[in-house]
Design a protein that fits this description.
Blueprint lengths: L4 H29 L4 H14 L3 H12 L2
Helix pairs in contact: 1-2, 1-3, 2-3
Length: about 70
């Protein structure tokens, strides 16, 4: 049984979007796992959403999420 190439193409795009969302939302998840205060978690989420498109902004949000 052959799967049409369009279905495989859509599956790749959906998979890439899921992986991208996991990567973008990782700092917010890590902030929650390290039991940050609500204010710090809010700052991490906003920084991740606003500056997550840049590598430096995402790394900053990630650092903020895991620091003690």
């Amino acid at each position: 049984m052959q799967v049409p190439s369009e279905i495989l193409l859509y599956a790749r795009y959906v998979g890439a979007a899921v992986v991208l969302m996991i990567i973008i939302l990782a700092p917010a998840w890590l902030a929650r796992q390290t039991k940050k205060s609500k204010t710090d978690m809010g700052f991490v989420r906003v920084a991740s959403w606003l500056f997550g498109w840049t590598g430096v902004g995402w790394l900053w949000a990630l650092w903020w999420a895991v620091r003690k």
